[in-house]
């Protein structure tokens, strides 16, 4: 997946790196509606909503260029593989086009690579050709060796992206982790920076080291600040 050049980056390109995040547990239906309207207005890549809000987001974004995304096994990754696969199938049936799944963190740390790979592959298979799959590593809990291994397992399982964080661990995306992840997967894979990218400068910094998607809640501020600089 081709990296972007921050020196020649356009507003449209920047917008299409952003997955507007609507995952806070306390969000009301009205707040989700407003978030989807914001995403549509700025032509971002996608919204990432909770599974219960996928049908709503699909209706609100129908006919737009903004995709509907949701989460699987979120936020701890500890659901059974069968549950994750069911979540994925249901989300796709409800209109999700992108799935951000959490790996089985404990299995990875235990060296159970086959379990981790099969867990991811089950979601990839459930998504089929109807949705792309991003694999959340939750780097806060992993060593560098585990991050590299997780990236390679995700690619082996057929996923489309690797992602730094859920936003629910104590820390999120770091430049060092993004460089490591970019180096650990082939060019066909995307890398998503999530948790902590709250400003234009932070967005440009993660793009410069290879992030091709950004999970953001401060979407409007990031894009409005870019307009001012242009």
Describe this structure in words.
This protein has 230 residues and is α/β, with parallel strands linked by helices. Helix content is 45%, strand content 16%. The chain has helices at 11-15, 29-42, 54-61, 81-94, 105-109, 113-127, 144-156, 175-184, 200-208, 219-229, and strands at 18-22, 46-49, 67-72, 98-102, 132-136, 161-163, 190-193, 213-216.
Give me some keywords for this one.
230 residues, alpha/beta, TIM Barrel, 10 helices, 16% strand
Number of domains: 1
E-strand count: 8
Q: Determine Rg (CA atoms, Å).
A: 16 Å
CATH superfamily: Aldolase class I
Mean pLDDT: 97
The biggest sheet amounts to: 8 strands, parallel, barrel
Strand order of the largest sheet: 1-2-3-4-5-6-7-8
What class would the helix/strand composition place it in? Answer: alpha/beta
Terminal Cα span: 26 Å
Shape: globular
Which fold name is given in CATH as the topology? Answer: TIM Barrel
Number of helices: 10
